[in-house]
Amino acid sequence: MCFPKACLFDRRYLETTLLLILLAGPAFPQSRGPLPALKQAESYLRQQQYRPAATLLQQVLKKSPRNPLAQNLMGLALTGLGKPEEANIHFQAAVKSNPKFYPAWKNLALNELAMRRWEEARGHFQQVLTYAPDDAVAHLSLGEIHYMQREFGPAVDEYLKSEGLFLRDPRLVLNFARSCFESNQPQKAAGALEILGPEADGQAHFQAGLMLAQMEKYAAAAHQFELATKDYPDPYEAGFNLTLAYVRSQNYSAAIQAAQKLIAQNYRNAELYNLLAEAYEHNNQTIEAYNALRTATQLDPKDENNYLDLMALGVDHANYELALDIANIALNNIPNSFRLIMQRGAVLAFQGRLTPALEDFDRAAQLDPQSNLPYFAMCMAPMQTAQVPRALEILRKRLAARPDDYLLLYALGESADRSAGSGLVSQDEALRALEKSVQANPNLSTSRIALGRIYLRRNEVDLAIPQLQRALELDPTDLSPCYQLAQAYLRKGDKQRAEDLMAKFTKFRDEDRERHINRNLLKLLREGEK
After folding, report:
1. DSSP 8-state assignment for residue 32
2. Angle between helix 481-491 and 495-511 (nearest 10)
3. Nearest-CA neighbor of 288 among 244, 265, 256, 266?
4. In angstroms, rounded to a whole number, what is the distance separating the alpha carbons of residues 56 and 113?
5. Residues with Cβ < 8 Å from 249, sequence gap 6 or more?
6. Which of 467, 416, 409 lies closest to 437, judged by CA?
7. pLDDT in tens, 390-448
8. Burial level of 407, CB count in 10 A (0-12/13-18/19+)?
9. What CA–CA distance (Å, rounded) separates 65 from 56?
10. Percent of the chain with pLDDT over 70
11. What is the dihedral angle through the alpha carbons of 433, 436, 441, 442, rounded to the nearest 10 degrees?
């Protein structure tokens, strides 16, 4: 997801702000001069009758050229007529006559803001605050300047001093929320976005949805995307993001409905069918997921991702022949696809067909000599068939050239389990490799699981527990660490927690463990592609 840049300071913003100043009543002291004429000019300005106001003020200024009140009003009239440079001459004349006359400083700064003269505007708004420290418009405008210059912390402070003025415009609410988010105040950001009601336009709701998705508040994001679908200029973009937000919030039935609504509107995009397939699979509608992915491959035969997901669906349901059929169809369309060849090799390894699997991995290595992924797979595949010595030979050769690759380091550590007692890999060597793997990529759950197991074998329980718990947080679908965690808590005397974890592991082992092992290798291969 990306956030389009918003154009904040348009004519509508400027006119709204100037009108706020006028409707607030006289923000300046009474001065000597032709007051009835000035009052009439001010009345014209309130009614946005700028030309009659300018004509009248010209007559006043002929008689009182140094009257700051008249100069200020003339500046407002010329601004309304679309002549900001001429207007600024009058605002400058007003403050020259009376430097403490802060309304003219403010109007000068507003014009500079509209013309994107950030530093000049900043200085003049600060001049306003010298004489009127609580001026809401000055604080709001300084907030906008800070925002445009990516000074998000100061922007938040200035918005909050604007007496709620930013709440009157959805665009400003979005800028405030973005400033909160970028300055590490996500709760404030989310709270501000909740203010956006149905009256805001589709563009504002769409931007709010993107921001909430960035904060991983997917249910709230879906609500904003739903509101955006009413009048967002690109119905497909709004509908696709709505579907995606529903999937990420695990509201799969709503995601299916949103995707089907787009399809009914004749949006037949491969990416949409791919997302629909994900929702179907999570909703236990495997046949529908399969059909959606097949449609995606037909709509875009050159996109690897749809074939890869279709193969993963076959692996998930232990239908390896289907996965291989899909791989062969895909490679007919994309014959030199590194990723497809890698995944076909993995499926062959799942079937115990090691020779053709290694041939695929070798071919992938030739296609991309810089990638370590084929060598990782060459190592992990023999391990699946208990040919650890061959795996280690491949692994050690590649690690000599790439000693800091986190996947290769994980594979070396994992091999300690499969060669326990053989002397092929010492526990100390495996431990060092896994510690380096976790350091290189803290978000790889499999490295932490293997590291936790070795710590537990060494009876370093207090080191094992954090690794295993973090692995569960990183991948809640893999409950294999529950077994080691149960052992660890049992050693610490926490029998109840140990029993709870063992119950979770037993259910996982009986229902999903073998399928997860295969799925995990595919996940690691995709991880390595990043």
Report:
1. S
2. 160
3. 256
4. 27
5. 218, 219, 221, 222
6. 409
7. 778 888 888 888 899 998 999 888 876 666 666 777 888 889 999 999 999 999 999 99
8. buried
9. 13
10. 88
11. 100
pLDDT in tens, 72-108: 999 999 999 999 999 999 999 999 999 999 999 999 9
Contact 246, 213 (CB under 8 A): no
What angle separates helix 68-80 from helix 102-114, to the nearest 10 degrees? 20
Output the pLDDT for position 391.
77
Structure tokens at 328: 């062969």
Query: Which is higher by pLDDT, 195 or 176?
Result: 176
| pLDDT exceeds 80 at position 5 | no
509 burial via Cβ count (<10 Å: 0-12, 13-18, 19+) = middle
Of 326, 446, 441, the closest CA to residue 380 belongs to 446
For residues 412 and 375, the answer to whether their CB atoms sit within 8 Å is no
Token readout for 388 is 């650890």
Q: What is the largest CA-CA distance in the chain?
A: 105
pLDDT in tens, 471-488: 999 988 888 899 999 999
SS3 content of the chain, % helix, strand, coil (to 5): 75, 0, 25
Q: Round to the nearest angstrom and report the end-to-end CA distance of the chain.
A: 17
Task: Of 423, 448, 421, give the one whose Cα is nearest residue 434.
Answer: 448
Look up residue 376 and give its amino acid.
F
How far is the C-alpha of 385 from the C-alpha of 350, rounded, in Å?
9
Q: Does the CA dihedral 308-313-317-319 come out positive or negative?
A: negative
Model confidence at 209: pLDDT above 60: yes
User: Would you say 44 and 76 are in contact if contact means Cβ atoms under 8 Å apart?
Assistant: no
CA within 13 Å, CB half, 402: 19
- Can you state the angle between helices 252-264 and 235-248, rounded to 10 degrees? 160
Quote the pLDDT of residue 18.
42
What does the chain come to in residues?
Answer: 530
pTM of the model: 0.73
pLDDT at 524 (0 to 100): 57
Q: Residue 124 is encoded by which pair of tokens?
A: 């003049």
Closest CA to 225 of 268, 258, 181: 258
The DSSP letter of residue 149 is T
Question: CB of 444 within 8 A of CB of 437?
Answer: yes
CA 43 – CA 39 distance, rounded (Å): 6
Residue position matching structure tokens 């990516």? 150
Set out the domains of the chain in order of their start, with CATH numbers. 1-23+35-121 (1.25.40.10), 442-530 (1.25.40.10)
A 10 A CB-CB count for 300 gives 17
For 48-65, what is the mean pLDDT?
Answer: 92
Mean pLDDT of the chain: 86
117 close to 101: Cβ distance less than 8 angstroms: no
What average pLDDT score do residues 171-200 get? 90
Sign for the CA dihedral angle at 113, 116, 118, 124 comes to negative
